[in-house]
Amino acid sequence: MVSRTIRAALIATTVLCPFLIVHMGSLWALGFALASLWSTANVWMISFVVREFLGPRRWKVLAPLFAIKFPLLYGLGIWGLYARAVPIGSVLVGFHIIFIVLVLKILSHRILEIQNRPSTSPEGDKAMPGNEERI
Fold first, then answer.
1. CB of 34 closer than 8 Å to CB of 80
2. Which end of the chain is less packed: N or C, by CB atoms within 10 Å?
């Protein structure tokens, strides 16, 4: 589910960026895209770390990942916020796009589950013997 959510967030970012360029400006779209990519990379790394901790715990993979994730990813995030090269609103919206996609995916699964709930009784489907219509 995480990989599909990441893919959907990247698609949503790709679809929304041209509209943001036209309506909000190129700096706003750039801030949105960079923050969206940052949060997507963060979620991917967190899911990878969780899978490794629940799985075989390959420390040769986890140690470099932690060495890259914390200083590089979070350092870039902090630097980007302090640099103020892009509007802060675009960063906030871009950062939350993966969470918005996740909530929408959960709601859609829940709605589809409610609409396509299988019948628990055979009477509801008229599957009982002797219920055939007579011609």
1. yes
2. C
CA angle 115, 118, 124 (to 5 degrees): 105
Spell out the per-residue pLDDT of the chain, length 135, in tens.
788 999 999 999 999 999 999 999 999 999 999 999 999 998 988 888 888 777 777 777 777 877 877 788 888 888 878 888 889 899 899 999 999 999 999 898 888 887 776 655 555 555 555 555 555
CB 61 within 8 A of CB 48: no
Q: Which helix (H) or strand (E) holds 134?
A: none
Torsion sign, CA atoms 111, 113, 118, 120: negative
Q: SS3 sequence, 77-93?
A: HHHHHHHCCCCHHHHHH
- Return the ∠ at Cα 11 (arms to 8 and 12), rounded to 5°: 85
Any idea which residue has 């919206």 for tokens?
93
Kindly tell me the burial class for residue 113, based on how many C-beta atoms sit within 10 Å of its own C-beta (0-12, 13-18, 19 or more): exposed
